[in-house]
Specification:
This protein is an alpha/beta fold. It is built from 13 helices and 7 strands.
Length: 456
Protein backbone atom coordinates (compact mmCIF):
# COMPACT_ATOMS: atom_id res chain seq x y z
CA UNK A 1 0.00 0.00 0.00
CA UNK A 2 1.41 3.41 -0.98
CA UNK A 3 1.76 5.89 1.91
CA UNK A 4 0.01 9.00 0.63
CA UNK A 5 -2.12 11.62 2.38
CA UNK A 6 -4.72 13.26 0.22
CA UNK A 7 -6.28 16.59 1.14
CA UNK A 8 -9.05 18.02 -0.94
CA UNK A 9 -8.36 15.62 -3.72
CA UNK A 10 -4.67 16.55 -4.01
CA UNK A 11 -1.42 15.30 -2.59
CA UNK A 12 0.15 17.20 0.25
CA UNK A 13 3.53 18.83 -0.35
CA UNK A 14 6.45 16.85 0.97
CA UNK A 15 4.52 13.57 0.88
CA UNK A 16 4.41 13.12 -2.88
CA UNK A 17 5.44 9.64 -3.89
CA UNK A 18 5.93 8.15 -7.31
CA UNK A 19 2.75 6.91 -8.86
CA UNK A 20 1.78 3.46 -7.83
CA UNK A 21 2.64 1.19 -10.72
CA UNK A 22 -0.42 -0.84 -9.83
CA UNK A 23 -2.65 2.10 -10.77
CA UNK A 24 -2.49 3.02 -14.48
CA UNK A 25 -1.86 6.62 -15.32
CA UNK A 26 -5.05 8.45 -16.09
CA UNK A 27 -7.14 6.86 -13.33
CA UNK A 28 -7.73 9.45 -10.61
CA UNK A 29 -7.02 13.14 -10.40
CA UNK A 30 -3.85 12.68 -8.41
CA UNK A 31 -2.31 10.35 -10.94
CA UNK A 32 -3.27 12.66 -13.83
CA UNK A 33 -1.62 15.65 -12.20
CA UNK A 34 1.49 13.66 -11.39
CA UNK A 35 1.57 12.27 -14.89
CA UNK A 36 1.43 15.78 -16.38
CA UNK A 37 4.16 16.94 -13.99
CA UNK A 38 6.41 14.08 -15.02
CA UNK A 39 5.77 14.81 -18.69
CA UNK A 40 6.60 18.45 -18.20
CA UNK A 41 9.82 17.60 -16.43
CA UNK A 42 10.78 15.28 -19.27
CA UNK A 43 9.97 17.92 -21.93
CA UNK A 44 11.71 20.81 -20.14
CA UNK A 45 15.24 21.29 -21.55
CA UNK A 46 18.13 21.48 -19.22
CA UNK A 47 20.12 24.65 -18.71
CA UNK A 48 22.34 25.32 -21.68
CA UNK A 49 20.43 22.86 -23.80
CA UNK A 50 20.79 23.48 -27.57
CA UNK A 51 16.98 23.30 -27.86
CA UNK A 52 16.86 27.08 -27.13
CA UNK A 53 18.70 29.48 -29.47
CA UNK A 54 21.59 31.31 -27.88
CA UNK A 55 20.94 34.84 -26.75
CA UNK A 56 23.37 36.32 -29.27
CA UNK A 57 21.26 34.94 -32.15
CA UNK A 58 18.36 37.16 -31.02
CA UNK A 59 20.26 40.40 -31.29
CA UNK A 60 19.22 43.49 -33.15
CA UNK A 61 20.88 42.41 -36.37
CA UNK A 62 18.67 39.36 -36.73
CA UNK A 63 15.49 39.55 -38.73
CA UNK A 64 12.31 39.19 -36.70
CA UNK A 65 10.86 35.70 -36.46
CA UNK A 66 7.32 37.00 -36.83
CA UNK A 67 5.59 39.82 -38.57
CA UNK A 68 4.25 42.63 -36.46
CA UNK A 69 0.81 42.00 -35.07
CA UNK A 70 -2.04 43.91 -36.72
CA UNK A 71 -2.62 45.83 -33.52
CA UNK A 72 0.99 46.95 -33.44
CA UNK A 73 1.64 45.73 -29.90
CA UNK A 74 5.36 45.19 -30.04
CA UNK A 75 7.93 45.19 -32.81
CA UNK A 76 11.37 43.81 -32.21
CA UNK A 77 13.21 40.54 -32.28
CA UNK A 78 13.42 39.86 -28.55
CA UNK A 79 9.90 40.48 -27.43
CA UNK A 80 7.58 37.56 -26.94
CA UNK A 81 3.93 37.38 -26.32
CA UNK A 82 4.27 37.62 -22.59
CA UNK A 83 6.71 40.46 -22.48
CA UNK A 84 4.12 42.88 -21.13
CA UNK A 85 3.22 40.61 -18.25
CA UNK A 86 6.63 39.92 -16.80
CA UNK A 87 9.80 41.85 -16.13
CA UNK A 88 11.29 43.31 -19.25
CA UNK A 89 14.51 41.85 -20.55
CA UNK A 90 17.02 43.69 -22.65
CA UNK A 91 18.62 47.09 -22.52
CA UNK A 92 16.54 49.84 -20.97
CA UNK A 93 15.51 52.72 -23.21
CA UNK A 94 17.70 55.76 -23.42
CA UNK A 95 17.29 59.09 -25.09
CA UNK A 96 20.06 61.58 -25.81
CA UNK A 97 20.80 64.57 -27.98
CA UNK A 98 23.59 64.14 -30.51
CA UNK A 99 23.91 67.46 -32.24
CA UNK A 100 20.56 68.15 -33.87
CA UNK A 101 19.56 64.48 -33.63
CA UNK A 102 17.37 63.05 -30.89
CA UNK A 103 18.52 59.46 -30.51
CA UNK A 104 16.46 56.64 -28.96
CA UNK A 105 18.14 53.36 -28.01
CA UNK A 106 17.16 50.16 -26.21
CA UNK A 107 13.65 48.78 -25.86
CA UNK A 108 10.99 51.47 -25.88
CA UNK A 109 7.87 49.69 -24.66
CA UNK A 110 4.96 50.36 -22.34
CA UNK A 111 6.98 49.01 -19.40
CA UNK A 112 9.79 51.47 -19.87
CA UNK A 113 8.61 54.44 -21.92
CA UNK A 114 7.33 56.29 -18.87
CA UNK A 115 10.83 56.45 -17.37
CA UNK A 116 12.19 58.68 -20.13
CA UNK A 117 8.97 60.41 -21.24
CA UNK A 118 9.58 63.86 -19.76
CA UNK A 119 13.30 63.70 -20.51
CA UNK A 120 12.60 62.84 -24.14
CA UNK A 121 10.11 65.68 -24.56
CA UNK A 122 12.58 68.16 -23.06
CA UNK A 123 15.37 66.89 -25.30
CA UNK A 124 13.13 67.05 -28.37
CA UNK A 125 12.97 70.85 -28.27
CA UNK A 126 15.17 72.18 -31.01
CA UNK A 127 15.97 68.75 -32.52
CA UNK A 128 16.25 68.62 -36.31
CA UNK A 129 15.75 64.85 -36.71
CA UNK A 130 14.91 61.74 -34.71
CA UNK A 131 17.25 58.75 -34.94
CA UNK A 132 15.76 55.31 -34.18
CA UNK A 133 18.69 53.22 -35.47
CA UNK A 134 19.55 52.12 -31.93
CA UNK A 135 15.98 51.13 -31.04
CA UNK A 136 15.59 47.39 -30.51
CA UNK A 137 11.87 47.17 -29.73
CA UNK A 138 8.90 49.46 -29.97
CA UNK A 139 5.24 49.13 -29.05
CA UNK A 140 2.33 51.54 -29.26
CA UNK A 141 3.26 53.30 -26.01
CA UNK A 142 6.81 53.83 -27.26
CA UNK A 143 5.47 54.94 -30.62
CA UNK A 144 3.31 57.51 -28.84
CA UNK A 145 6.44 58.87 -27.16
CA UNK A 146 8.31 59.05 -30.48
CA UNK A 147 5.39 60.84 -32.15
CA UNK A 148 5.10 63.25 -29.21
CA UNK A 149 8.81 64.02 -29.49
CA UNK A 150 8.46 64.51 -33.24
CA UNK A 151 5.57 66.90 -32.70
CA UNK A 152 7.50 68.94 -30.11
CA UNK A 153 10.55 69.05 -32.34
CA UNK A 154 8.39 70.10 -35.26
CA UNK A 155 7.00 73.02 -33.28
CA UNK A 156 10.51 74.18 -32.45
CA UNK A 157 11.75 73.73 -36.01
CA UNK A 158 8.57 75.22 -37.46
CA UNK A 159 8.20 72.26 -39.80
CA UNK A 160 8.19 68.48 -40.03
CA UNK A 161 11.08 66.66 -38.37
CA UNK A 162 12.12 63.41 -40.12
CA UNK A 163 12.38 60.06 -38.32
CA UNK A 164 15.39 58.11 -39.54
CA UNK A 165 17.12 54.78 -39.04
CA UNK A 166 14.11 52.74 -37.93
CA UNK A 167 14.15 49.03 -38.71
CA UNK A 168 11.29 47.61 -40.72
CA UNK A 169 9.25 46.29 -37.73
CA UNK A 170 9.79 49.48 -35.75
CA UNK A 171 8.80 51.60 -38.73
CA UNK A 172 5.66 49.50 -39.21
CA UNK A 173 4.56 49.98 -35.60
CA UNK A 174 5.33 53.68 -35.79
CA UNK A 175 3.32 54.04 -38.98
CA UNK A 176 0.33 52.23 -37.50
CA UNK A 177 0.42 54.41 -34.40
CA UNK A 178 0.60 57.50 -36.58
CA UNK A 179 -2.42 56.33 -38.54
CA UNK A 180 -4.37 55.41 -35.40
CA UNK A 181 -3.75 58.80 -33.83
CA UNK A 182 -5.78 60.32 -36.65
CA UNK A 183 -5.68 63.75 -38.05
CA UNK A 184 -7.52 66.65 -36.51
CA UNK A 185 -10.84 67.24 -38.23
CA UNK A 186 -10.73 69.82 -40.91
CA UNK A 187 -12.53 73.00 -39.98
CA UNK A 188 -15.95 73.32 -41.52
CA UNK A 189 -15.89 75.59 -44.52
CA UNK A 190 -17.52 78.88 -43.88
CA UNK A 191 -20.75 79.39 -45.72
CA UNK A 192 -20.55 82.27 -48.09
CA UNK A 193 -22.72 85.14 -47.04
CA UNK A 194 -25.41 85.74 -49.59
CA UNK A 195 -26.80 89.06 -50.53
CA UNK A 196 -30.50 89.89 -50.27
CA UNK A 197 -31.22 88.94 -53.86
CA UNK A 198 -29.40 85.61 -53.57
CA UNK A 199 -31.11 84.82 -50.29
CA UNK A 200 -34.47 85.55 -51.91
CA UNK A 201 -33.51 83.28 -54.76
CA UNK A 202 -32.42 80.49 -52.37
CA UNK A 203 -35.71 80.82 -50.50
CA UNK A 204 -37.62 80.61 -53.76
CA UNK A 205 -35.68 77.55 -54.89
CA UNK A 206 -36.38 75.89 -51.56
CA UNK A 207 -40.09 76.61 -51.85
CA UNK A 208 -40.19 75.23 -55.39
CA UNK A 209 -38.34 72.12 -54.30
CA UNK A 210 -40.77 71.64 -51.40
CA UNK A 211 -43.73 72.04 -53.76
CA UNK A 212 -42.20 69.44 -56.06
CA UNK A 213 -41.78 67.00 -53.17
CA UNK A 214 -45.38 67.58 -52.12
CA UNK A 215 -46.61 66.96 -55.64
CA UNK A 216 -44.55 63.78 -55.79
CA UNK A 217 -46.01 62.55 -52.51
CA UNK A 218 -49.51 63.46 -53.67
CA UNK A 219 -49.04 61.46 -56.85
CA UNK A 220 -47.68 58.45 -54.96
CA UNK A 221 -50.58 58.61 -52.51
CA UNK A 222 -53.14 58.78 -55.31
CA UNK A 223 -51.55 55.84 -57.10
CA UNK A 224 -51.46 53.85 -53.84
CA UNK A 225 -55.14 54.51 -53.14
CA UNK A 226 -56.14 53.55 -56.69
CA UNK A 227 -54.10 50.36 -56.54
CA UNK A 228 -55.58 49.52 -53.15
CA UNK A 229 -59.07 49.96 -54.60
CA UNK A 230 -58.18 47.49 -57.36
CA UNK A 231 -56.46 45.08 -54.93
CA UNK A 232 -58.12 45.40 -51.51
CA UNK A 233 -55.91 42.66 -50.09
CA UNK A 234 -53.01 45.16 -50.08
CA UNK A 235 -54.76 47.05 -47.29
CA UNK A 236 -53.94 45.59 -43.89
CA UNK A 237 -57.16 45.55 -41.87
CA UNK A 238 -55.35 45.19 -38.55
CA UNK A 239 -53.37 48.37 -39.15
CA UNK A 240 -56.50 50.25 -40.18
CA UNK A 241 -58.31 49.19 -37.00
CA UNK A 242 -55.36 50.16 -34.86
CA UNK A 243 -55.20 53.63 -36.41
CA UNK A 244 -58.98 53.99 -36.15
CA UNK A 245 -58.62 53.43 -32.43
CA UNK A 246 -55.83 56.00 -32.19
CA UNK A 247 -57.51 58.59 -34.39
CA UNK A 248 -61.12 58.14 -33.35
CA UNK A 249 -61.84 56.25 -30.17
CA UNK A 250 -59.16 57.87 -28.06
CA UNK A 251 -60.22 61.34 -29.22
CA UNK A 252 -63.90 60.99 -28.34
CA UNK A 253 -63.56 62.47 -24.87
CA UNK A 254 -61.70 65.55 -26.06
CA UNK A 255 -64.14 66.08 -28.94
CA UNK A 256 -67.19 65.84 -26.68
CA UNK A 257 -65.75 68.26 -24.15
CA UNK A 258 -64.78 70.81 -26.78
CA UNK A 259 -68.15 70.45 -28.52
CA UNK A 260 -70.13 71.21 -25.39
CA UNK A 261 -67.96 74.21 -24.58
CA UNK A 262 -68.20 75.56 -28.12
CA UNK A 263 -72.01 75.19 -28.04
CA UNK A 264 -72.21 77.04 -24.74
CA UNK A 265 -69.97 79.86 -25.96
CA UNK A 266 -71.84 80.28 -29.25
CA UNK A 267 -75.20 80.32 -27.49
CA UNK A 268 -74.14 82.99 -24.99
CA UNK A 269 -72.35 85.14 -27.56
CA UNK A 270 -75.35 84.98 -29.94
CA UNK A 271 -78.10 85.43 -27.37
CA UNK A 272 -76.83 88.74 -25.99
CA UNK A 273 -76.95 90.83 -29.23
CA UNK A 274 -80.01 89.04 -30.64
CA UNK A 275 -82.00 89.72 -27.48
CA UNK A 276 -81.71 93.43 -28.15
CA UNK A 277 -83.87 92.86 -31.21
CA UNK A 278 -86.10 90.25 -29.60
CA UNK A 279 -84.66 87.56 -31.84
CA UNK A 280 -82.98 85.34 -29.26
CA UNK A 281 -85.47 82.61 -30.10
CA UNK A 282 -83.51 82.10 -33.32
CA UNK A 283 -80.27 81.28 -31.53
CA UNK A 284 -80.79 77.50 -32.02
CA UNK A 285 -81.01 78.05 -35.78
CA UNK A 286 -77.87 80.19 -35.85
CA UNK A 287 -75.82 77.86 -33.69
CA UNK A 288 -77.08 74.76 -35.48
CA UNK A 289 -76.19 76.00 -38.96
CA UNK A 290 -72.79 77.28 -37.80
CA UNK A 291 -71.88 74.01 -36.13
CA UNK A 292 -73.09 71.64 -38.81
CA UNK A 293 -71.74 73.52 -41.84
CA UNK A 294 -68.54 75.13 -40.57
CA UNK A 295 -67.44 75.01 -36.98
CA UNK A 296 -68.02 71.35 -36.23
CA UNK A 297 -65.86 69.93 -39.06
CA UNK A 298 -63.31 72.72 -38.75
CA UNK A 299 -62.75 72.37 -34.99
CA UNK A 300 -62.66 68.59 -35.20
CA UNK A 301 -60.06 68.89 -37.97
CA UNK A 302 -57.95 71.24 -35.85
CA UNK A 303 -58.01 68.67 -33.05
CA UNK A 304 -57.07 65.97 -35.52
CA UNK A 305 -54.16 68.03 -36.90
CA UNK A 306 -52.75 68.77 -33.47
CA UNK A 307 -53.27 65.35 -32.01
CA UNK A 308 -53.03 62.81 -34.82
CA UNK A 309 -51.15 64.61 -37.60
CA UNK A 310 -48.23 65.29 -35.30
CA UNK A 311 -48.33 61.69 -34.05
CA UNK A 312 -48.16 60.37 -37.61
CA UNK A 313 -45.25 62.66 -38.40
CA UNK A 314 -43.36 61.74 -35.23
CA UNK A 315 -43.85 58.01 -35.73
CA UNK A 316 -42.82 57.97 -39.38
CA UNK A 317 -40.07 60.53 -38.72
CA UNK A 318 -38.56 58.27 -36.08
CA UNK A 319 -38.60 55.40 -38.55
CA UNK A 320 -36.96 57.62 -41.16
CA UNK A 321 -34.23 58.76 -38.77
CA UNK A 322 -33.56 55.15 -37.77
CA UNK A 323 -33.39 54.23 -41.49
CA UNK A 324 -36.25 51.76 -41.08
CA UNK A 325 -37.97 53.29 -44.12
CA UNK A 326 -34.85 52.70 -46.21
CA UNK A 327 -34.69 49.14 -44.93
CA UNK A 328 -38.28 48.53 -46.04
CA UNK A 329 -37.50 49.83 -49.52
CA UNK A 330 -34.40 47.64 -49.71
CA UNK A 331 -36.52 44.61 -48.81
CA UNK A 332 -38.94 45.50 -51.60
CA UNK A 333 -41.76 46.66 -49.30
CA UNK A 334 -43.50 49.85 -50.34
CA UNK A 335 -43.83 52.13 -47.28
CA UNK A 336 -46.70 53.93 -48.97
CA UNK A 337 -48.76 50.73 -48.88
CA UNK A 338 -47.57 49.48 -45.51
CA UNK A 339 -47.46 52.72 -43.52
CA UNK A 340 -49.24 55.55 -45.32
CA UNK A 341 -52.32 53.85 -46.77
CA UNK A 342 -53.74 52.55 -43.44
CA UNK A 343 -53.35 56.00 -41.89
CA UNK A 344 -55.07 57.72 -44.80
CA UNK A 345 -58.00 55.32 -44.66
CA UNK A 346 -58.34 55.52 -40.89
CA UNK A 347 -58.28 59.33 -40.81
CA UNK A 348 -60.76 59.58 -43.68
CA UNK A 349 -63.20 57.24 -41.91
CA UNK A 350 -62.76 58.64 -38.40
CA UNK A 351 -62.96 62.32 -39.25
CA UNK A 352 -66.73 62.43 -40.14
CA UNK A 353 -67.45 60.57 -36.91
CA UNK A 354 -65.50 63.14 -34.92
CA UNK A 355 -67.25 65.99 -36.72
CA UNK A 356 -70.65 64.43 -35.98
CA UNK A 357 -69.79 64.12 -32.29
CA UNK A 358 -68.63 67.71 -32.27
CA UNK A 359 -71.93 68.81 -33.83
CA UNK A 360 -74.11 66.86 -31.44
CA UNK A 361 -72.22 67.84 -28.32
CA UNK A 362 -72.25 71.48 -29.44
CA UNK A 363 -76.04 71.35 -29.90
CA UNK A 364 -76.38 69.86 -26.44
CA UNK A 365 -74.34 72.70 -24.95
CA UNK A 366 -76.45 75.24 -26.83
CA UNK A 367 -79.69 73.59 -25.63
CA UNK A 368 -78.51 73.73 -22.03
CA UNK A 369 -77.91 77.46 -22.32
CA UNK A 370 -81.26 78.09 -23.99
CA UNK A 371 -83.14 76.06 -21.39
CA UNK A 372 -81.26 77.93 -18.70
CA UNK A 373 -82.42 81.19 -20.23
CA UNK A 374 -86.06 80.14 -19.96
CA UNK A 375 -86.81 78.48 -23.30
CA UNK A 376 -88.58 75.15 -23.25
CA UNK A 377 -86.73 72.18 -24.77
CA UNK A 378 -89.53 71.66 -27.30
CA UNK A 379 -89.06 75.20 -28.59
CA UNK A 380 -85.35 74.64 -29.02
CA UNK A 381 -85.93 71.41 -30.94
CA UNK A 382 -88.56 73.05 -33.15
CA UNK A 383 -86.19 75.88 -34.01
CA UNK A 384 -83.47 73.41 -34.87
CA UNK A 385 -85.81 71.39 -37.01
CA UNK A 386 -86.99 74.48 -38.83
CA UNK A 387 -83.55 76.03 -39.39
CA UNK A 388 -81.26 73.06 -40.00
CA UNK A 389 -81.55 70.61 -42.85
CA UNK A 390 -80.00 67.24 -43.45
CA UNK A 391 -78.03 68.68 -46.35
CA UNK A 392 -76.21 70.99 -43.95
CA UNK A 393 -75.07 67.98 -41.94
CA UNK A 394 -73.97 66.09 -45.04
CA UNK A 395 -71.98 69.06 -46.32
CA UNK A 396 -70.12 69.23 -43.05
CA UNK A 397 -69.43 65.51 -42.93
CA UNK A 398 -68.19 65.54 -46.52
CA UNK A 399 -65.78 68.35 -45.77
CA UNK A 400 -64.66 66.50 -42.65
CA UNK A 401 -63.70 63.42 -44.68
CA UNK A 402 -61.58 65.57 -46.99
CA UNK A 403 -59.99 67.31 -44.00
CA UNK A 404 -59.07 63.95 -42.48
CA UNK A 405 -57.48 62.73 -45.70
CA UNK A 406 -55.44 65.91 -46.12
CA UNK A 407 -54.28 66.03 -42.48
CA UNK A 408 -53.19 62.41 -42.54
CA UNK A 409 -51.35 62.94 -45.82
CA UNK A 410 -49.52 66.02 -44.53
CA UNK A 411 -48.50 64.19 -41.36
CA UNK A 412 -47.22 61.16 -43.27
CA UNK A 413 -45.35 63.34 -45.76
CA UNK A 414 -43.64 65.27 -42.97
CA UNK A 415 -42.57 62.02 -41.33
CA UNK A 416 -41.27 60.36 -44.49
CA UNK A 417 -39.32 63.46 -45.53
CA UNK A 418 -37.77 64.02 -42.10
CA UNK A 419 -34.07 64.75 -42.08
CA UNK A 420 -31.45 63.22 -39.83
CA UNK A 421 -30.51 63.95 -36.25
CA UNK A 422 -32.45 64.31 -33.02
CA UNK A 423 -34.22 67.48 -34.13
CA UNK A 424 -35.65 65.92 -37.27
CA UNK A 425 -38.57 64.25 -35.47
CA UNK A 426 -39.56 67.47 -33.70
CA UNK A 427 -39.29 69.45 -36.90
CA UNK A 428 -41.44 66.91 -38.72
CA UNK A 429 -44.16 67.08 -36.03
CA UNK A 430 -44.13 70.87 -36.09
CA UNK A 431 -44.31 70.91 -39.87
CA UNK A 432 -47.25 68.50 -39.80
CA UNK A 433 -49.27 70.62 -37.36
CA UNK A 434 -48.56 73.94 -39.09
CA UNK A 435 -49.09 72.54 -42.56
CA UNK A 436 -52.28 70.78 -41.51
CA UNK A 437 -53.88 73.89 -40.01
CA UNK A 438 -52.92 76.07 -42.98
CA UNK A 439 -54.29 73.46 -45.36
CA UNK A 440 -57.54 73.36 -43.35
CA UNK A 441 -58.08 77.09 -43.68
CA UNK A 442 -57.30 77.05 -47.39
CA UNK A 443 -59.58 74.07 -48.03
CA UNK A 444 -62.40 75.58 -46.00
CA UNK A 445 -62.17 78.75 -48.07
CA UNK A 446 -62.25 76.71 -51.26
CA UNK A 447 -65.31 74.81 -50.05
CA UNK A 448 -67.07 78.06 -49.11
CA UNK A 449 -66.57 79.53 -52.56
CA UNK A 450 -67.50 76.25 -54.24
CA UNK A 451 -70.73 75.83 -52.25
CA UNK A 452 -71.67 79.44 -52.88
CA UNK A 453 -71.17 79.03 -56.62
CA UNK A 454 -73.17 75.80 -56.61
CA UNK A 455 -75.95 77.39 -54.60
CA UNK A 456 -75.66 74.93 -51.74
Amino acid sequence: MTDRSVTGGGVADGERNPPDPAIPVGEGAGNRREGRAEGARERAPAAGSPALPPAEDMGPGRAPDRAPEPGGAVAGPEVGAGSDAGPEEGPPPEVARDGDALRFTGRLTSLSAGRIWHRAEEAAKGAGRIDLSGLEALDTSGAALVLSAQRIAGKSADGDVPVEGASEPVAAVLERARGASGKPPAPAPEKPRLGPIRRLGAWGVGRVKGAGDSAEFLGESAATVVNAARRPRDLRAADVLRHLDEVGTRAFGLILLLGVLIGVILAFQSAVPMRQYGADIFVPRLVGISLLRELGPLLAAVVLAGRTGSAFAAELGTMTVNEEISALRIMGIDPMVLLVLPRLVAATIAMPVLALLMDLSGLVGMAVVMVGRGFAPAIVIDQLHAGVQLWDLLQGLGKAAVFGLVIAGIGCRAGLQAGSGPRAVGDAATSAVVGGIVALVVLDGIFAVLFFRLGW
